[in-house]
Amino acid sequence: MAISRKAVVLLSGGLDSATTLAIARAEGFEPCAISFRYGQRHEHEIDCAKNIAASMGVARHVIVEFDLRVFGGSALTSDIAVPKDRPIEAMAGEIPVTYVPARNTIFLSFALAWAEVLESSDIFIGVNALDYSGYPDCRPEYIAAYERMANLATKAGVEGETRLTIHTPLIALTKAQIIQRGIELGVDYSLTSTCYDPIPSGEACGRCDACLLRLKGFAENGIKDPARYARHDAMQPRSGDAETDAED
């Protein structure tokens, strides 16, 4: 039996990162999960990340702590209202206030450092360029540029011991396709948290962009979302109505 290779997987506790973790495992990697407590308002996702890592048998899961609230500039790290009940056109129109400046660059830097220590040449991140095309750090060209930089910035890369690859298995998938793939791999989506503005007990608002996009993805698969929502009237859109609600 072939020895599995270690891979660092960015695990936020959300639907996309959980699916990415499952894909890494299915591809024969030994996933080492990394999560971040960075001052985000949706702290509940850290507990979800722990539960997801445990459910998938991740041997090592580290949580890195720093505080981006000292900079602010995002609805997720400062006192800026999270957009609610937005139509699909508004979501795709411009970079939303839920964008956290340089977040993926920071996250990938930590993942890169850990990968080098682990002697791993593989990092998995669940970025998606379809649903949040306005996020500059979710684009294929950004990932390609970061990968080039990483191979210039590490001892392993410079000495030619290994070449780092950043895997983005979800980058060209719709939310419905991501969910379908996760279901095929046995992902328990009841453990995940997607909401940008959950209530303190963890229930999702059902109205932010992330919730609407998630609900639409499940509706398009004809499946009830197992997540807990604070508003029962905002829970499960019918597949026929989903097009007017959101897309991710």
Average pLDDT confidence is 89
Stretches with pLDDT under 50, minimum 5 residues: 237-248
Structural class, from secondary structure content? alpha/beta
Q: So, the CATH homologous superfamily?
A: HUPs
CATH class assignment: Alpha Beta
The biggest beta sheet, please?
Answer: 5 strands, parallel
**Could you state the order of secondary-structure elements as H and E?**
EHEHEHHEHHEHH
Shape: globular
What is the CA-CA span between the terminal residues?
Answer: 38 Å
What's the arrangement of strands in the largest beta sheet? 3-2-1-4-5
Mind telling me the C-alpha Rg?
18 Å
CATH architectural label: 3-Layer(aba) Sandwich
- The amount of beta strand, in percent, is 5-15%
| Total discrete domains | 1
Discrete helix count: 8
Q: Bin the helical content.
A: 25-40%
Number of strands: 5
Write down the CATH topology. Answer: Rossmann fold
Descriptive overview:
Helix content is 35%, strand content 11%. The protein has 248 residues and is an alpha/beta fold. It has a single domain (5-187), classed as 3-Layer(aba) Sandwich (Rossmann fold). Strands 3-2-1-4-5 form a 5-stranded parallel β-sheet, with helices on both faces. Helix 1 links the parallel strand 1 (5-10) and strand 2 (29-37). It is globular.
